Amino acid sequence: MIVEVELECPHCGEVFVSTADTSAGSYETVEDCAVCCRPMVVRIECEPGDVRAAWTEPC
Q: What is the model's pTM?
């Protein structure tokens, strides 16, 4: 199940919406900020259908 999550860029502070695939279990990925273009690690802790925590960290 795909769930929308609200995250904040750790570099510029821009808040953005991303999606998390909860069927995959907890995971991390790298995304670029749409505003400052700097990469960040997105960490998702989830169970099927439920995001328990979502946060970003600088790469």
A: 0.90
Two structure tokens written together for 34: 């749409």
Distance CA 27, CA 16 (A): 19
Cα torsion 57, 19, 23, 39 to 10°: value is -30
The predicted-structure confidence for 5-50, as pLDDT tens digits, reads as follows: 999 999 999 999 999 999 989 999 999 999 999 999 999 999 999 9
Contact 43, 5 (CB under 8 A): no
- According to the model, what pLDDT value does residue 43 have? 98
CB 21 within 8 Å of CB 10? no
Work out the number of other CB atoms within 10 angstroms of the CB of residue 39.
11
User: Distance (Å, rounded) from C-alpha 4 to C-alpha 52?
Assistant: 12
